[in-house]
Amino acid sequence: MEDEALKNVQDPSKEEKKSQQELEKRIFYLKTLYDLSLEIGFLRGTQEITKNLLLMMIGNFGAFCGFIFLFDMSQRKTDAFSQRGLDKDSLDMLSEQIESGHWIGLNGITEIQIIDESNKPQAAENLFDLLSSLNLRIWIPFDIDANLRGGIGLGDKLSGDPYTSDDQELLLTMANQGAVAIENARLDQARIEALEQSKKELEKLNRAKSKALDHLSHELRTPLSVIQGNIRILKRKTQSQTPPLVREEVFESLEKNLNRLSDIQQETDQIIRSHQELEMKPRLEEFDQAHSFAPKTIHLCFFTEQVLEDVKKRASHRDIQFQIEGEKDLRLVVDPNILEDILVGLLKNAIENTPDEGMIRVVLEHRAQWLQLKVMDFGIGITKENQRRLFEGLFHTLDTELYSSKKPYDFGAGGKGLDLLRLKAYARRFGFDISVGSQRCIRIPTDQDLCPGRISTCPHCRVREDCLNSGGSTFCLTFTGTGDKV
Amino acid sequence: MNKEIQVSISQKDDVSILNIQGDVTAISGETIEEAYQKVNTNGAKKILLYFDKDGYINSGGIAILIGIASESRKNEQKIRITGLSAHFQKIFNMVGLTKYTEIFPTEELALKDF
Question: ipTM of this predicted complex?
């Protein structure tokens, strides 16, 4: 040793070369630690992590062979096993030892250990001999916790160099890095399992809730029908008496309220069906669209004009101006029935929230790969609080106390939110986006403030534009991957 | 960001050439292993590993190459290496891979040595 040192002093270039090599080796080792974190940091399986850890160790030190294993103490079975360079006989012998649990004797070796006859530990003599017979040179304990325990054995280096104390330190650091990655992966797995369990429980509760509501809705139907029938009989009998025992208006009020209850019951029933249908549907990515809708290429402007004409007929008792704006030559691949349903729903919602003498605009736009269909009304708008609950279902923009039974398309007719709920369901199922922007009319900021329903009777509007500029809502549908011009 | 690995096999006389483009890691190294097994099954006795000079090789990839070198010895095959950057030539030397195989600066020299 002293002679070598003397030679190096006499030959500074040799000393320099050696230092350079040592430096390069250390840089390589540091790079290995960095690469290891990249290789195993994002893996989520114990087997994958252990396999990669072993390969990084073998490659870093140029080892002939090696193996790694983890044993689940509570289940008494191997959790992970990987090897490199062991022959079949050695492998069989090793697997047998691990499976039988004999390796537990290695607990006697609690620290990294060079396998060398001169330092054979008495506590684990037999297993030490086993490792030696497998041509392994170093043993690294690899325990994740008290239950998941194991080890790593590496063979001699190809270079013939011994494992130094620096090497041992690096091996322990790499093993620790592997243990942390496995612990993280197991924690992640436990979190995912807990979330899945919670999701299942929530789905179960939701189904129970749906079932209960469905039952209640059905239970309401019979007594309502019976009451309606009895009132008709009573009306017939009392009206035939002179003078009538009960006034006509009383029956009218009774019938009106009962009909309203009946409508609510039917709509509730429909909403519950929609919810149940949604719950039954697989997730969007699993959804086989071929079985559910028939897409066609449509000329969007022409299609919109047709739907609008139809809606205008249904709302012919209203005094509203309609406009279609934007690009006239766009085409869209979509199921026409679904798009019609969506458009009718949006237009109906717009009409019911726009006072007479007001305006509704439909805008068709093509932006990059998106095609947007906007329904803009210049009506009463939606308060900020209500905007948040808009697609929750069973939601209408008028307060319940102010809600009166009106015909569809009447101003303020509202609804039970079914159309918006259906829109949300379509968006989920057919992969388009729906968004809403709204400005509540500045003259009627809360739900308790009423719009008279006709611009010319509004005390705040001198001219029509005063109303058009005071509030309104825009529902925007965004379709992707479409919009080719005709 | 790893460069995706691509391994193509070609033949020059009795030498099977594995042209390795991209980074060699524990995971991507399996593609080299598969290519080696293919030429091994075809009875190749002389194999040239031709690396991409710009490619990166990590310790996991080196472990795969050690495995191939070790198996080639059992199968009585000769393995030569070319295309390596000076840095990786040093690394291969450091980990002892050069005891199982030889590195050449050019393809011609490697082919001549078989």
Answer: 0.94
